[in-house]
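seq:
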Amino acid sequence: MKKILYIEDDPVAMTYMTQLIQRMGHTIITATTGESGLARAFAERPDLILIDLLLPGLDGFELTIKMRSSETLKHTPIIATTATPNEDDQQLATMAGCDGFLVKPIEYETLSDLIRACFDSEAHTNKNVSLESENIELRRFTLRLVHRLTDKINEISYANKELQKTNNTLDRLIQEVRTNNADLMQINQLTSQIMAYRDRSTIYREMPQLISDQLSLAGAVIYVVNEKDLTLDVFSSYKYDFLPETEHIPFTEPPFFETVYDNQSVTIDVHKLIALQRENERHARRLEVLFESFHAQTVCFVPIRGRARAADDFECENQDCEAFVKKDGQWWRNLIHQYNRRDLDYPSRLRDASRYFFNCCFYDLKGVLALGIPDGRMSDAFRQIIHSFTTTVGLRLDNVQLYEDVREAYMLAEKQAITDAMTDVFNYRYFHHQLEREIRRAKRHWSKLSMIMIDVDHFKSYNDRHGHPAGDEILKRLAVVFKNITRTSDIIARYGGEEFVIVLPETPKVAAVKFAEKLRAAIQDEDFPYEQTQPMGDITVSMGVATFPDEAQTIDELIQRADEQLYRAKSGGRNRVAYSNTTG
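struct:
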């Protein structure tokens, strides 16, 4: 005798299935929602689970994915059931992880054979639930997204190739510099840790401690470029004593000028500090403070470089950019180097040129890594290791940005696929899909569903008098009024032109008519531009109300009945709600 969990919100189906399972000699436990069913599954650990696909809240598809994602339930047989199947349900259920699929009403022999087959199976296949399965509806839009994301995917592929080249360089250094083998091993481990982070802030926040501990350094700081003030600002640090002079370091003078504008590493030791004191005592004092903050005899500033937006060609968005006009990627850098620091207008000229330089499509600086180097550690091989590491970090930052761009493109494409661009309510296609789903749900729960068809009165004359932009603004304002008055469960869509439609789930006709009157009055009371020029002195709407299943049994019939009532409202003088006398 086996223990079987049945998750079903229909009490009639629940009673029928209980009798069938008990007739087979098995024990049945039940749940009426996806959430309670998931909890019972973890608590009872049944031998088999039966799930209705159209559950309220967490539906059968999502519930199956969650079970297959858990160690406890990933091998438990799952059979999906449904009373209203469509051509995609069985395929989607299988993709989610179901082992069987039954259409109600279920015959005893069919159920018994399928359950026996699940129990007799020698090994239940472990289902690997991919990230795509967590959002099954997204599969419907995949083909439309492929072309839009091809360029982004190519960029990711290129960045990965560059990353592979960097890793090959690290491997070659391991063979060439045996004396630095320990440092290379630590850098490889550090790179793997950095690669696991998925956002720029985390990489910058964790990197100072990771590199300091792995390489036994005196300390580390991440600086970011402040393009407005022309300073390097501290983002994160480790083993670093903050002093006012070191939190914001101007890069308008050497040696930091070369780091920002030329992507050059700068190493400052006691000998270089003495030389700088002879040239610029004030600037040397600022560098002296850096040594005090790091408690080190050598401080190394290394640029973190990524991949410029224009790797092979110009991708400049500033049409007034001289580098773009002259097709010279080094134009701004060369211009900046021509400025004389002794000129009185040098700061303003550098600031103006930097505004273009930092936005140039050839600019690739992501930040600056400052390291406190203990005595005896700095060498050419060590410097090369640090450079390879910062290059890897820069490429990882590019990959993170590309991932964010792809994710945003997915989200934007998904929204655009279901939303009317002008009014920001649902479009006709999504309305039709949701109405079909709501009617199926109403049938299953024996509930009522109402629909309101809305048309703006005398809209053509308003457009002719005031122009299409003014008409578009009226439609946008109407959409806002609809959103403010409707419930979150209601579905608002633009049906076409100046027509809208609102679907009211679990709403009988009496309530729908009352709501429509409230909406009509709210629109009449709303202040719209130039409404006094309308025939009625106001912007008004006419509405037709129809209810399922009182007047219609299908989607097409419900839309037709609502449209007929809208015609009655328009014919009866406009600015009114029309509905049939059928009780609902």
